[in-house]
Fold each of these.
Amino acid sequence: MSSRPLESPQLADAQVLLDRLLTEHKSGFALPREFQTDPGLYQLDLERIWRRGWLFAGHSCEVKRPGDYVVFDVDTDSIIVMRGDDGVIHALHNTCRHRGMKLCAAASGHVARLVCPYHQWSYSRHGTLLTCGGMDADGDLDRRDFNLRGVHAREVGGLIFVCLADDPIPFDGAGHALGAHLTPQGLERARVAAARSYEVRANWKLVWENNRECWHCEVGHPQYVRANYDTAPIDDAALKREIAAQARATSARLEAHGLVIDHREAGMVPFPMPEQWWSINRTPLIPGWVSESMDGRPVAPLMGAYPTHDVGTLRMRTMPNFWNH
Ligand code: FES
Ligand SMILES: [Fe+2]
């Protein structure tokens, strides 16, 4: 596993700044600009959140067969996420143990073994050093000491997560909840139909803040507003009754299929919660709507094991780098 120190003395100044900003911060107000712009605070984010947390690294369906891999980059690290010969996902640092060359230059692919392009050391799909150009011939190099460095990896419900920390934070709570909710979705049997990358010239927290508020939705996402209760007033008694009735009706219909509507209020689910880096829920859509389109009608074939299009909407988020609905 990685032996990279979690903290460095250079972060001490950032810690002082962080302490001051948190002391001065008024709860319920926006974060001061330094949280979005200060390089030291950004390094703290990387060390304490990105290098300690479970990061979404790809979909199971992208690495179906043993030897299929995707490369996942975070900060200065590059990670190979590969389906092993045992069918299990293995995550390996994309760094040759000889002179540090990057092993996989492509973003994804399939390999029988990993061969370094520099001096052709070769590794198994699990990161075991197989050949090293004869450098072990005279006995002064033990191949077992030069396997690729591993990274913790988990696969649940068709999603793959990795954690760079030596001792990861617990995954099991997330694994159980995500697994239970995601099973009918059938993500592992899906395909990635299209991918879009958007480079946002902003700190990552600004992107999350945008995700966790829906004041921009009325104008920015009219189709979403038509389908969802997220922007509805949370204190409207008549509306509360409508949502409760809709949730009950949808749950009753879907109970036999193991699907439960477990968010039954207007407004968004609070996230993130202290000590909980993940959350997942199914929530009802507005009556008559089965998709977040302008007319609410189906826009694609049914996924997974869903018996009908009318299953509400499944939402999940994992801190720091994943959400979907
Ligand atoms: S750096 Fe990989 S074989 Fe030399
Ligand atoms: Fe938005």
Amino acid sequence: MVKIITPEKTLHDNESIAKKNRNIINENGIIMINLIGGPGAGKTTLLEKTLRLLNDKFNVAVINGDPYTSYDAEKLAATGVVDVVQINTQNNCCLSAGMVARAIEQLPLEQLDLIIIENVGNILCTVDVDLGENFRLLAVSVTEGMHGPEKYPLAFRNAFAVAITKTDLLPHVNFNLGAYISQLMQLNSNLKIFPVSAEKDEGTEDWSQLIGRMLWKGRRFINVN
Ligand SMILES: Nc1nc2c(ncn2[C@@H]2O[C@H](COP(=O)(O)OP(=O)(O)O)[C@@H](O)[C@H]2O)c(=O)[nH]1
Ligand SMILES: [Mg+2]
């Protein structure tokens, strides 16, 4: 069952609320990931595949940000995750730390290893709004063209890893994967880059393993009771 909440967005005090969110999840030994990407980048489809692999090893909850619907939350709930909270942001272009705080209140924290947030489809205003996550991931698809890194450099600079999605469509689109990866390396030489096709299930296992490693590495740096 997906819980749907419609909290008001305020960015007032966002930093201090984000800090509180981070403290709450750290105290519970949980790692929280914020997945951002434009509308239709393939975030939900990639998460569906990822969660089916992660659910075997970890207790995962999802917080989904969507303006009005809960289609994505329903799909992600069907993967068998422990819990899903849908935040309907209405006209707001991104989640705020306050909204995520309301969602965290709904989750059984003592049972969880990992919380994955699917942010609202947008790579401008999501980029500098801290939700209290430990890691930020980015999904960008081969159908979005070659200029994304120049148009939205902060999205790529602030990410821990990027999934370049829908690689099964490479024969049909004007997209040079090698040149794109070179651009990304110039922008952020630490960025971990994963070409994936959720449709063909290619690269999805590597992406899931990355998240598993983030969980284990992240936990070494936080206080686990
Ligand atoms: N060909 C192809 N289509 C995909 C892939 N991943 C997602 N899609 C399609 O892209 C559209 C948007 O995907 P979705 O996961 O909802 O994107 P989101 O808005 O970022 O969550 C849907 O029609 C998906 O079926 C993929 O790997 N290959
Ligand atoms: Mg989605």
